Amino acid sequence: MRIDIITVLPKLLEGPFNDSILKRAIDKGLAEVHVHDLRSYGLGKHRQVDDYQFGGGAGMVLMIDPIARLIEDLKGQRDYDEIIYMSPDGERFNQGMANQLSLKENFILLCGHYKGVDERIREHFITREISIGDYVLSGGELAAAVVSDALIRLIPGVLNDESSALSDSFQDDLLAPPVYTRPAEYRGWKVPDVLLSGNFPVIEEWRMNEALERTKARRPELLKKSEETGEKGK
Ligand code: SAH
User: Fold this and answer.
1) Domains of the chain, CATH where assigned
2) 125 CA to centre of ligand 1 in angstroms
């Protein structure tokens, strides 16, 4: 998988890909993440990338030309499966979308800033628009990092125990059951006996039950959704 991220703030994206699971995925060659500074395609001596909005009003808008040229340069080098604009009015990101997208190869993620990007970019270059939730961030960088993380961890070989991605919350529309590690007792607070029993079928049943109870209590609409699609859980 290759992810090209277009941003006016490349520094903001240095952190997320330089540690832990994402870094390991990149080091192993399972994922490539390339961050492109839009300013290097900026106009004139000052490398301008934004301008006032037509019609007046507060807030700058990222101009069409630098973004268009950068996207076209990238498209000249390889085919892209999706050119995604991170946007609060996009499709709401969820695990199902992450699963689907993780099967694809090449992505461009365009991060907006200020008031957003010139609408013509969205009309003529963007194939998909994704929101990470109903709130407004100051730029698309953190959202792009969220989406990249969710996709990269699904690539086979990225997580040490591949099956662990499958037992996470939202796979099969269930929240994950509680987890514990040593010590088995801390200040008198005990780990459920069943987890120490070594009886794996019983442990599996306990986990399934806890996942169901937790989902019922916290996100009952997920259970309704899987009833409708005929899935029965993990
Ligand atoms: N004026 C826009 C918001 C611009 S916020 C509006 O009201 O819809 C600046 C940039 O941050 C956006 O261009 C987008 O790239 C990013 N952004 C903000 N909130 C986001 C969210 N919830 N999901 C994804 N990207 C977001």
Assistant:
1) 2-152 (3.40.1280.10), 167-232 (1.10.1270.20)
2) 17
